[in-house]
Amino acid sequence: MKNIYLIGFMGCGKTSSGKKLSKLLKVPFLDTDQMIVAQAGKKIPDIFLEEGEEAFRRRETEVFRKLAEEQKEGAVISCGGGAALREENVALMKQGGLVVMLTASSKTIYNRVKGGHNRPLLEGRMSVEGIEELMQGRLPFYEKAADLKIPTDRLRCIQVAKNIAKAVKTRESRLDS
Ligand code: S3P
Q1: 34 belongs to a structural domain
Q2: Which atom of ligand 1 is closest in space to residue 44's alpha carbon?
């Protein structure tokens, strides 16, 4: 199986649905944010605060290089919400990977992320309007990178995982025939 890279805005369910999907497909689950945290030895807000966003992005690209080189067996990989904004990251995902975009409205996202403090880019932007504005700038990048697009509004993560599995299977059988 190819690696499945889940991309999309913060709070669209990449991690929660990704974990369920990895169980359904019986493959490992990986999370680029967790890999960065493990490598840096500090939490994401601390990396942003102490090193700045650019340094975080360099660490993120390093993780995608490592995944493209070492993770060849097939895994579900949840990607940070900014990962698909860098062309280099997307090119690394496409090396042996399928890119799946998860979508949700800014209202849904707000309801999922409000009250959290682990996403530095949402600090000072914790409103439906603030999320919508940031999301509009990012959607063209997600759309360009995506091989498949899966909606998540009003769905439980197990249902999203099942929908991803079905869409991946359909796409692969179409490509095989
Ligand atoms: C970011 C999203 C976060 C994390 C970092 C930056 C972004 O990941 O990588 O805070 O730029 O959208 P999640 O999408 O998993 O929250």
Answers
A1: yes
A2: 10
